[in-house]
Specification:
By secondary structure, this protein is mostly helical. The chain is built from 6 helices and 2 strands.
Length: 141
């Protein structure tokens, strides 16, 4: 599994908004400048996150984006799934996958199921508030 640029940028954008929304709605041009990311690219990501109910958007002079909920209620897994889709390490574990004819006899399926569980437990156990605070659960923090 490899997280795309879109997934990495979505997490950076959500973190930036969480850190700066106390002053009001956060303009994407400001996020783009702070994060060194194209505003056009952030607009695509923000649209997906807004459609998923994670961001609130306001147009106009003092418009921008704000988290729809408190940072503690978002997990990294949820944010990534909005922009990346399924985080399953193999296609046969995706919820929309066609049934695999080999599933009953597949010796490798438990390997992929274990990896999927680790991904879920790790990314699902880190909130946006943790990321903002630098509490990501890795060995260096």
């Amino acid at each position: 599994m490899k997280i795309s640029t879109k997934g990495r940028y979505a997490l950076r954008m959500m973190t930036d908004i969480a850190e700066n929304q106390a002053k009001g709605y956060v303009a994407l041009k400001d996020v783009a400048a702070r994060q060194g990311i194209s505003k056009k690219y952030l607009e695509q990501i923000a649209l997906r996150l807004s459609q998923a109910g994670m961001l609130q958007a306001v147009r106009g002079f003092q418009g921008g984006y704000m988290l729809a909920r408190e940072p503690e209620t978002y997990t990294v897994e949820q944010i990534l799934e909005v922009v990346e889709g399924s985080l399953a390490p193999v296609s046969c574990l995706e919820s929309c996958a066609a049934p695999c004819a080999q599933r009953e006899n597949c010796k490798t399926l438990p390997v992929w199921m274990g990896l999927e569980r680790l991904i879920h437990d790790y990314l699902g156990g880190i909130t946006l508030a943790d990321v903002v605070a630098g509490r990501t659960g890795d060995a260096e923090n």
